[in-house]
Each structure stands twice: as C-alpha cells, then as structure tokens.
Amino acid sequence: MAVEIVPEKDEQTYRSAIAKYALQPDNTWMVGNSPKSDINPALAAGLNAVFVPHGNTWILEHDDLATAQAPQRLLVVERFPDLRAHSRFTAR
User: Fold this and answer.
1) CA distances (Å), origin 54, targets 6, 37, 61, 79
2) What's the pLDDT score for residue 45?
3) Which residue among 50, 59, 74, 86 is least crowded, i.e. fewest CB within 10 A of its CB?
4) Is the peptide bond prior to 71 cis by the omega test (within 30 degrees of 0)?
C-alpha cells in the first residue's frame, strides 16, 4: 500500500500511479467526493471508483458522474462507513 499527495488529480496522474506501483486497474479503487478530480479521471484511467457525495464539496469540483465502462465499477454510497456493506471493502 502507498499514499501519495499530488498537486493535480487528473487522468494522467492516475495513469502514472498505476504504472509506478504496477497496479491492476480492475482491483484498484479511487474513493472520493469530487466527480471532477476524484471519480471521473479515475474512471478515464481505467480504475474503479467509489463516489461519496458531500454537501460541502467545493462548487468547482462539481460535475456529472462519468459512466463506468465494463468491467469497471462505479459505486455510490451516502457515507464512507457504508463501504462496509460491500464485500470488496470488508476487512478480511
């Protein structure tokens, strides 16, 4: 596992992380509250995504959610703890 702080979250940033860490896109998830910089670029880079809407998300981060292309998955949950209801995110 790794954590990176990046100056810009866009498709190329996600693609670079995939290459740098030799990630398998079908097993890699981006979790975020911004369609513009979290969800849509992650999907464009071939990752799965979890959208956690938040009422105080900065207006410039608002955008329509992209559609996940099979075999990608886009999951929408109301609250972060709701991920526990999905087996992919349940601790083993």
Assistant:
1) 21, 14, 11, 8
2) 96
3) 59
4) yes
Q: Is 45 exposed, middle or buried (0-12, 13-18, 19+ CB in 10 A)?
A: buried
Q: How would you label 53-91 residue by residue, b for 16+ Cβ within 10 Å and e otherwise?
A: eeeebeeeeeeeebebeeebebbebeeeeebeeeeeeee
* 54 token code pair: 């938040």
Q: 52: how many CB neighbours lie within 10 A of its CB?
A: 20
Instruction: Name 50's bridge partners.
Output: 31, 75
In this structure, are residues 25 and 9 in contact, taking their beta carbons and an 8 Å threshold? no
**pLDDT by 10s per residue, the chain, length 92:** 777 888 889 999 999 999 999 999 988 999 998 999 999 999 999 999 999 988 788 787 778 889 998 889 999 998 888 888 886 665 43
N-to-C CA span, the chain: 16
